[in-house]
Amino acid sequence: xxxxxxxxxxxxxxFRMQGGLGLGLNARTSERIAFLLIGLSAMLVAGFVVVILAxxxxxxxxxxxxEFLTEMPRMRMTQGGIYPAIVGTVLLIIGSMAVxxxxxxxxxxxxxxxxxxxxxxxxxxMAINNLAGTPSVVFGLFGLALFVxxxxxxxxxxxxxxxxxxLIIPVIIRSSQxxxxxxxxxxxxxxxxxxxxxxSTIRHVVLPAAIPGIVTGSxxxxxxxxxxxxxxxxxxxxxxxxxxxxxxxSQFMALPYHLFVLATSGTSIVKTRPLQYGTxxxxxxxxxxxxxxxxxxxxxxxxxxxx
Length: 307
Hints:
Elements: H1 5-60, H2 66-70, E1 73-74, E2 79-80, H3 83-114, H4 119-132, H5 136-150, H6 157-182, H7 185-193, H8 198-227, H9 230-235, H10 255-264, H11 273-306
Helix pairs in contact: 1-11, 3-6, 3-8, 4-6, 5-6, 6-8, 7-8, 8-11, 10-11
């Protein structure tokens, strides 16, 4: 029996429409579920952050005072303030960023703009990835062997800052590379077409456009420098040092190590509990303050690029 071609074609169209509608409904349902899961995940992360911040603030605000922030420690740190630890932490951040930021940016520029897709470049990329995943205590041992012993810098701010700079260089390189990659190729082509040299193009066109991404990497690096304990433990930090460092070759106090000792092996852990939360709150405020400055810088350059 011969089939009616017209009827068969109508049946096929009807089947496709029904299948299409079914697929559409499934797609919308999947999209709603995905948005729900993403929203719940974001709320969960935000909730954890709020709980941690609230817990630290609730337990630490009572210890915050002018004396706590400006006085020297006394009685093996059971009394007095944490002023030397604040100064030491800020000096560590400044010293490590002063070394790591230019080196990381220059390495990223070389890898992204000059180095080709060669075996040497691949080896360098692998080395950076391995460094990014290396435990911080390994960097501490490296700094102890190289800066403290071999170069003779001793236990000092200089040794600790150089060690921390090597710790954060992989982070800066990676974030800077991503920022450089995000700059449209048309920027480079247009500049080169006008006869501008490659270095001038990178310096005046590419780098300014990549600054927001580079600053993002700097924000992450600041937080890591401020919170590391193992590297500075091996390269120069002291628990009780009631004076300010007088040179880059002096020992120093730092908030993360100070907090670690107070919470684990202090002379009176229970008695110094308010000092522990107060120190954690001050460290958090320093990191948030420096991060806020970096965010403002990033926002400024983003607005400038949009104009």
